[in-house]
């Protein structure tokens, strides 16, 4: 099973213990009304644990979906729980959010506001294509999925290849 995650870089140098103390007390409650039904939506961090170079926890937040049941709208609350980890590697601090892209982006923005009182202090991490290519070719037997951006096919912006022998296919070599 594939687990979605996104990696971010923390721009501001900070101490993991300071991050932990700020996140430990984070809890937001928001009242909202959907289809004339009142909801208390909560965003919070739980399950924090720290070690020498790592801070882990779970960011949870509530949202309300409206589904149709026998022709009538019915609001349904849902809680999303996204594990996260801050890892200090060398002098850089990375945040990994184990959630799909859009929710991971929103969580990183919320954490930026909570930890640094502004957006933009936690930004997307980038891996240069040549570094990723070298990593794949050094671990060719372990790579099962490869994504290509900006492919030269009409109306196709991304291409993915799945399989156990990706490096030996002509499609891999064509889009490399």
Q: What is the topology?
A:
Layout: E1 6-10, H1 16-24, E2 27-34, E3 37-50, E4 54-69, E5 72-89, E6 92-97, H2 101-116, E7 122-124, H3 129-138, E8 145-153, E9 156-162, H4 170-175
Antiparallel strand pairs: 1-6, 1-7, 2-3, 3-4, 4-5, 5-6, 8-9
From the structure above, extract its key features.
single chain, 176 residues, alpha+beta, Alpha-D-Glucose-1,6-Bisphosphate, Chain A, domain 4, 2 domains, 7-stranded antiparallel beta sheet, two-stranded antiparallel ribbon, flat
Enumerate the spans where pLDDT stays under 50 for 5 or more consecutive residues: none
Q: Strand order within the widest sheet?
A: 2-3-4-5-6-1-7
SSE order: EHEEEEEHEHEEH
CATH architecture of the largest domain: 2-Layer Sandwich
Number of helices: 4
Distance between the termini: 26 Å
Principal-axis shape: flat
Question: Roughly how many Å is the radius of gyration?
Answer: 20 Å
Largest sheet: 7 strands, antiparallel
Please state the structural category: alpha+beta
Domain count: the total is: 2
Q: What is the helix content?
A: 10-25%
